[in-house]
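Pilot study result, target chain (153 residues):
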Amino acid sequence: MSRVEFHEEWFGSASQEALAKLLSLTAGTEGKIIEVGSWEGRSTIALANAAYPDEVVAVDTWNGSPGEISADLAAERDVYMQFLHNVHTATKGNVAAFRMGWREYFAKYADPIRFLFIDAVWTGEDREACLAKAGQEAGACWAFAKARLGYFM
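Predicted structure:
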C-alpha cells in the first residue's frame, strides 16, 4: 500500500472541510486536539493537516460499535492497520493513536482540551435511543446532541 485507501464513504469532503474550519476557530487556544472515533482516519487526516504542527490525539478501539455494521466490518479486516497506514501516508506525523475506548482514555484525563471531535454512533430519534441497554454500551446520537447543543458550544 502506498496511497490512502478508504473502504466506506462515511466522512465526505464537505465534512472534512467543515471540521478543519471549526478547528481553525480554536487557533491560539491552549489544550489538546482530540478525536474520539477515527475508523480508517478520514476525519483524523483532515484534523491533523489543519492542526499541523500541533498533535491530534485519535482515540478508538478500531473494533466498530457493538450492534452496528462497523463491528461486522472490523471483524472482516484490520481497520486499525488501515488507519495507521492512511495517517502515516497523508499527514506529517502529528497523530498519536490510542487504541482503547473513550472511557478508558478519559478516566484520568486532566489536561485542557482545545478541540474535541466525537465521531460515534449518531442514530436515534429520541432520548431513549441514546440510553444504554442491558449488555450494550450506549453511543452518542443526534437526539442527544440537538437537545444539549448549548453544552458543547
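One observation from the pilot: Strands lie at 32-36, 56-60, 95-99, 113-118. A full batch analysis is planned for the follow-on phase.
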